[in-house]
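Researcher: Last one for today. Full complex below.
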Amino acid sequence: MNEPVKTRRVSIWRGEGETGQFETYDVPAYDNQTVLDVVSHIQHYIDPSLSYRFACRVGMCGSCAMMVNGEPRWTCRTHVNKVAGQDVLEIAPLRNLPVIKDLATNMDPFFDKWVKAEAVHHSSASRDEEMMVVLPDDAERKKADAGIECINCAVCYAACDTVAGNADYLGPAALQRAWTLYNDARDAGKQTILEAVSGAGGCHNCHAQGGCSHYCPNELNPMQAIAGLKQATTRAMLKGKL
Amino acid sequence: MLTLRLYMLQRITALLMAPLVLGHIGVMIYAVQGGLSAAEILGRTQGSVFWFSFYGLFVLAVSVHAAIGLRTILHEVTGLSGRLLMFFTWGTALGLSVLGMRAILAVTFLTRGVS
Ligand code: SF4
Ligand code: SF4
Ligand code: FES
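Model: Here's the assembly. Have a good evening.
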């Protein structure tokens, strides 16, 4: 790394559970520094008691998401220079999830909703049967493909105002996975999925303003997946199947 | 707080309202441009099953549509849920229907003279 040209003042949320406050730290500023580098510097050199989460540092694992200047970001792939206008850098735990300590949130509600949305594989064959052939240019496969690169980072979940207002809302990531499975020829739970996404927290609560798609670091489009679910459930209802 | 059923009800009432709104605007323009007096308008609406059905359907569609929309806003802004939210939804739907139906009845089947 090059010599630090200056230091940057950074506000970091510190506290346990619902109580806490921002505390400021002076961190050396480097070129090409990521937000995660800043957090790690504080933990390594200033206050080892700072809690946060990361693993891969290359945008694969989805564990490092935080609120950066009020917006949800994957911090390992977010360059400080791109987000810290006027040198202000404020880092807080992910929105819409309970805080455990400092920058680490409890992801349970997020993942519990994947299960509630039936965003789990419903097997259609046993290990003794032939593997089903899924062609990449099949229309259904293309719809599934559009959403399978999700890294479960919960950035979309933090961006979603409907999650903020409706605690039962399953949220963009879980609904998107339900949609990819709905379009997976190997999944035997299509009806189960449609039923799971049609309740009080289901896909019909989405306001379709696209916060999720705007912030998804992998440039996925959960809003479109949800529109697909709305259409599929509507069709099923008109056919008397829901 | 929108289930598939509420979502569908809101879409269907929206579909119903679209032509009714256009019809209503058309009637307004016709009445104003044509310079119809209140008595002339009442002369056409009184006893008319057509106008009663036209605006009756409109009022019902509005009542259902608005009640579901307000219910969503109330839930997301205040967190109100359960029975209270249900009472609010039904209360809004019934309140709007009563107000609307009263007005329609007044110009179709109940009126006696107008000044
Ligand atoms: S489009 Fe739907 S899921 Fe996405 S942020 Fe908006 S309300 Fe949430
Ligand atoms: S859809 Fe995008 S933002 Fe949401 S969890 Fe998956 S990768 Fe993250
Ligand atoms: S640390 Fe794995 S995605 Fe950021």
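The pocket of FE2/S2 (inorganic) cluster (ligand 3) is lined by residues A 54-57, 59-64, 74, 76 (CB under 6 Å). Chain B has one domain: 9-110.
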